[in-house]
Amino acid sequence: MSIQAHQLICQEVVEVITDYLEGAMTADLRGAFEAHLARCPHCAAYLEQLRATIRVSGTIEAEALSPQFQVRLVAAFHDWRQP
Amino acid sequence: MYPVTVRGTATGVPPDQDRELLGRLRAGDEAAFTALVDKYGPSLLRVAQLFVSSRAVAEEVVADTWLAVVTGLERFEERSSLKTWLFRILTNKAKTRGQRESRTLPFSSFVGDGDEDETAVDVDRFARDGHWTAPPRGVPEERLLAGEARGVVEAAIGALPANQRAVITLRDVEGLSAEEACNVLGLSETNQRVLLHRARAKVRTAFERYLEEDR
């Protein structure tokens, strides 16, 4: 995506925001991006929501293994361990 | 008995614990095996279900993975984290299994998922000059604490196209780095980033809808 580093509009900001969070921007683009965020509360709110989404994603617990499945795994371990 | 996290992630757990458990596992210590299964099993099962159609098959893939782990312990060179190593073994097994089931696997370098024309945010929310007309309104604390945020995000992730779901699960749910996720899924950095971008955009949209309820 070719975006002029000296100007970023909101509609572009939301499309390059992942590059920003991944540290995949040139220094120029990052500067323009951060300058935009500093003066645009709407895009700052968007980033806040995106960060919150990521944070919440990280709290989703994986379902525990069923007891039967755990028994099966341990049995397989015993089979392997047998000399 | 062992301070393993319910989530089965390494977050906040020193890597030394993994090294210790692996050492004991090599010696055939069953308690070390069950500790590792408790710690990583749930995540392995979750990731397996990204690749295969049923929980039963996912369990088989996970069982095969643990067997490959104990038989291949010598091969773990500790250049990556244990978690990454486990996921790599798992995804190899899962992909083979998925292919045998002839389920369409999305993990080629081709990023096409039908979303090429989609934007992160509905174009209707912008004016023609690219500024917001219907801007987002941040994150009200009460909605975050209402307890349903997690369910909304989880459901949104579940509704994603398979390859977007895989990337966001590995990156944001399981906490792998970009490099690790690319490694596990066999994706280029760029492709991984595009998929992550699309996935996060959709999930944020669902999350915002939830935040705006009753506001």
Question: What does the model show?
Answer:
- The complex is a heterodimer of chains A (83) and B (215).
- Chain A is built from four helices and no strands.
- With 83 residues, chain A is mainly α.
- In chain A, helix 2 crosses helix 3 (41-57).
- Chain A is elongated and about 65 Å long.
- In chain A, 27% of the residues are buried.
- By secondary structure, chain B is mostly helical.
- Chain B is elongated and about 65 Å long.
- The chains are: A mainly alpha (83), B mainly alpha (215).
Q: How is the topology of this model organized?
A:
The complex is a heterodimer of chains A (83) and B (215).
Chain A: H1 10-21, H2 27-39, H3 41-57, H4 67-81
Chain B: H1 15-26, H2 30-48, H3 55-71, H4 82-100, H5 141-145, H6 149-158, H7 162-173, H8 178-185, H9 189-212
Helix pairs in contact in B: 1-2, 2-3, 2-4, 3-4, 4-8, 6-9, 7-9
State the separation between the terminal residues of chain A, measured CA to CA.
60 Å
Question: Which blocks of ≥5 consecutive residues of chain B have pLDDT under 50?
Answer: 1-14
Question: Taking all residues together, what is the mean pLDDT of chain B?
Answer: 86
The rounded distance between the terminal residues' Cα atoms of chain B is 45 Å
Low-confidence stretches of chain A: none
SSE order of chain B, as H and E? HHHHHHHHH
* Largest sheet properties of chain A: none
Shape, principal axes of CA atoms of chain A: elongated
Structural class determined from secondary elements of chain A: mainly alpha
Count of β-strands of chain A: 0
SSE succession of chain A: HHHH
Report the largest inter-chain contact.
Answer: A-B, 42 and 56 residues
**Shape category of chain B:** elongated
Q: Radius of gyration of chain B, rounded?
A: 20 Å
The share of residues in extended strands of chain B comes to under 5%
Number of helices of chain B: 9
What Rg of chain A, in angstroms, do the CA atoms define? 23 Å
